[in-house]
Amino acid sequence: MTLIEALGNGTRLEILRELSREPKYVTELAEATGMDGKTAVHHLSTLEEAGLVDHYMRGNRKYYELTAAVELQIAPPPERTFVLQADDVDGDAPNR
User: For the whole model, what pTM was predicted?
Assistant: First the structure.
């Protein structure tokens, strides 16, 4: 899955917005975004596959957190710039 495909869904963008505030477990994310748990897990799996989120266990709860900072730059002509970039939070090489 490409970065643009992962970010091309409004629900996944809502999840990322929630995770930008703090790590959350699945039920918290589902409630915050108005979806059921199964749908939330599906979208979280997609975001994890794209390298944007990761999970960790605390007790029996699976928490998700952001692992990348995403930047979108778009400029009209004459520059005609379109750059979508995700950098690991710890500063590793960017993904495009």
Answer: 0.80
